[in-house]
Amino acid sequence: MNKSKAIQQFLFLFLFVLLLPGCTEESQKILPSGKQIKVGVIGPMSGPDQNMGKEGLEGIQTALHIGKFLHNGDAIELLIEDDQNIPELTVKAFEKLVVVDQVRAVIFLSSSESVLAVNDIADTYQVPVLVLLATHADISKETKFVSQLCLDNTFQGKVAALYVRDELLIDQVAVFKNPTNDHSNSLANEFIRKFRAIEGEVVDVVLVPSELIDYAKVLAKLRGRGGQFLYLPVRASDVLLITEELHNMGWNPGLMGGDSLLNNVIDSQEYLDGFLQMDHYSSNLEATSLGKQATQTFRSLFDTRHSTYPASGFEGMAILRQAMDRCQKPADSVCINSKIRSTRNFEGIMGKITVQEDGKVVRPLIINRVDGKKLEYVVKVY
Amino acid sequence: MKPYVTSALFLHVPETEDLTGLVSGNPFACGITPVPLQSFLSAPEEYLHLATHVVVAAPLKGVKSVLVLAMQYDFSIGCIPTPSQKDLGSCYGLPLKFEDALELALRDDPQIMDLILCNGEILIFQATIGRLPLIDASTNISVYQKILGGMKRFIGLKLLPFQFVTSDGVKIKTAASGCMIVQHHEHSLASRLISHDSSLVDGMISMVVTAPISLVDYFRFLSQIFRSRTQQKRIATSVGYIKSESIDIETEVPLGVVIDGESVTETPVHCETVPKAIRINIGERLREIAADSKRLKERVDTKNLPAGKELIKAARQKIPFFSYASEERFRDLFISLREDSQIKPTYLVLMVLSTMLAAVGLYQSSSAVVIGAMLLAPLMAPIVALAMGLLRHDTRLSKASLVTIAVGVTIALSAAALISFLFPHKPITMEMQARLNPSILDLAVAIVAGVAGAYTKSHKEILQSLAGVSIAVALVPPLAVAGIGLGMGDLSFFTQAFLLFSTNLIGITLAATFTFRLLGYSPVVRDKKGLYFVLVLLIGITVPLVLSYNELVETNVLEKNWQRERFVVNDKYLIVQQAKVVHQRNEKILYVKVLVRDPLTRSDLNQLRKKIQSNFTDHLVIRVQVIYIP
User: Fold this and answer.
1) What is the ipTM of this complex?
2) A153, B51, B212, B254: which could form a disulfide with B266 (CB 3.0–4.6 Å)?
């Protein structure tokens, strides 16, 4: 055999080995069966919280765009209901979807109050409910059919306290809370409990919003009492007033808010730099391969800024589809529920997600810092 | 006041006829008789009674015809070059501005000068036989044309058999790409080649012979010429120089002889000087040179031209891109390499000592001791010798080097294994672990070290740098680790460390082989078998190294990211300060250093282990170092 022939054969073999992995992708093509499985989506598609619903839905649609069909060829059909984040409307929407439309699972993009309203009914109808954005600790409590994909307020409040005390080494904090809002109240209470338990001092608890509140006066008082850090699990509008006043007074304490707090207002003020916020995602944390695919597809489909809501929607739909695929009968609601609750190390957008048998999620919590109107990752907490 | 001739003939051609008025009305009180050149050439006697000085404004061929008649009738000559006749201007130092040229042409102080005839043809500037790309270019063309034309002439450049015989009867047989007879010619590249003793009145012919052994060599030689603004004092490498009253040039097949840009005859050619042949008005600078010149002895400087065995190999072959060399040229280097390839008692003793030192240093985890062992290690020398053996297809040198390396490796493995066997405790230190994960980066180090090793070896004055090369590539420590692996009976340990040693060995050998080739140590007759063999080995070893590199990148990313990982276990906050992944005995070990305020219980650690493990798909051995912070 001459030399050039030997080299040609070697190159051919080499190319063959290189191309071999590509062949397996092709063999996984799914043939549609012609059947459809209905999945309900409930969220605020109108009203003041419509961002949650609309953007979350875009995430769900992104997941379906990447893979509309289950492994057996069945297609997923979405039925969308707007609850405006009002618990009464949520219950009505849920009953319609389950009883009239006979959906096999429901994805929730609503807040905690709305989701808590359907906790009991879900068990009655035995339809799996996947909660993507609500963080109240009682969601999934005493129910076998509601699973929560975001870390609850208890964990978030606890981590916030530990981070401030053990990582930032801060002894004295002031906490702002809105007693009429479950989300704010539970985050603040857990933070206060844990911070005190680890020998930190809460110098004051400020209740917001109050129409008569004079932030200049309140903040001056806190400064005088030695507050080094302000924990702010309140509405974004309150945070903007506070940060503006802090800027006016020339005081620069550490600041931390609740989860996804600044998602829609991050561009609106320049005094937010350094503000800490909890999330499941970050602008500068490297995404998993699924995460990269999701971002790319989302950008090709929508003009919306990719934030926490669409990311949560995408992960929720992907986990639900995986659960359906793992059932022998993908339309079997009981099976879907059990498979959701046995999701182990699902490769999410920025880390692994495990759903426990009690419906609670195990996933990393990310502490971000606002830096130049972006959320930059500081630490990841497991 | 300068003397001017009182009368002169003005020889013109139709193109220069319009100068007649200007020449006739010259301000030097010289009576001019205009004569068409053709009329003068056909009957010179008819005009020479009118004047004994002739001013000529004509193409080169016409000027040459006038020179022939000048020899015969002994009249003096003045030239007025046209703006396109830069060559002529350069050769006789003539100004190109008409008024200045006329002033010089009408002077009455001609310089007696020699003429060169080749097969009876007058040579004014230069004659070329064969090819001398870029050097033989005319000065009348642009730089761009010179480079383009020169590059074309590189294609298929060959060394051809030549024979030169001087007037003293010296016979030179050689192979050359070409040769060039150079008359004094300022501003030409060719004139920079000839020694400063060239002259127009020394009765000698100066000839340059080029015999580049490679294109690289030729480029080097050209760069020397371009860099040098003045004439070369020394004969450049690959160039021969002959200065004689006459030179006979013979070639195996007839080659065209290009005289002053025109192919007028072919080899064999007899070139001779006609001393004091003509009287011509020349520039001031040239006149000073002519005044200083004296008759010199014949000079034959051909030691840089192929001769003997080399001649047989080189003749009629295309000039290779890289240089080749005969052992005779680099005798000292080859003697040294042959010595390096031999097994000597000092080599054996140093091998044992360096391995023992390395093994102890590895157990101590002492970088200083390990570096000491690297310095002692004598392995680099036979590897470099092996590279040369492979390049030159010198089976004896290659075999001897391979045997020496193999013996050295066996000694190192045995010594390290024995030490490991004798040591009661066998800790796996960080120094050892550092040699268990070779990657493509190690191959890069070996390649650079191989280049440095070969370069150092071929330059005596920097030989002391070889120690630095030995430290950079560290041959003995991986061998010692492999030996320790053998002593512990751990095959994976042995394999990983030996892979690193093999990487170094192959990387150095290949890089050194190429370096020697670039430096011009290829044999006259090349054989690529050895090189192919090392290349195949290199490809073979690259696969695991690339995989290992990918793993290394992943590990580095993980280690970097993990510095921002935090764990909450049973309400206790754990800050990861440092994380390190080590691959050992088919296990992945994650070393984590955590900071914590509260005491950790077994349950806390167990939960931490589970949380860490959940981040990995494959099983991990997790080692946690806890640092309590107040």
Assistant:
1) 0.81
2) B254
